[in-house]
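Quick one:
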Amino acid sequence: MKRSLDPDVRLLRAIADPVRLSIVRQLSAQGTVCACDFTACVALSQPTISHHLRVLREAGWVTTERRGTWIHYALAPSAVERLRTLAGELDSGTARAGGSFGPNTAGGRRHLSVVHPTD
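Output:
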């Protein structure tokens, strides 16, 4: 499967993982967190947590600051704002055209095609 270059897809894909969502929630609650302190919110090894932090950083969810030998992470305000905007677009029906919402269009707007299973 080809990776999407759409920054919105990358943003959403990054927090779709339960570990990364836990990390984002911890950052939201605590502000700045040292890399060594993430092992408290998830029972994983430091190298695995570092992998998840890298994914979040590349997607734009976190910012980093080196303090001596430690790296501190913070939630990127721009990512939070982008998520709010995306949710608002979906709620109000103003999602930007060209998104991958399906082939059906009406009035220049794309609409989600939903197939309901029959009983």
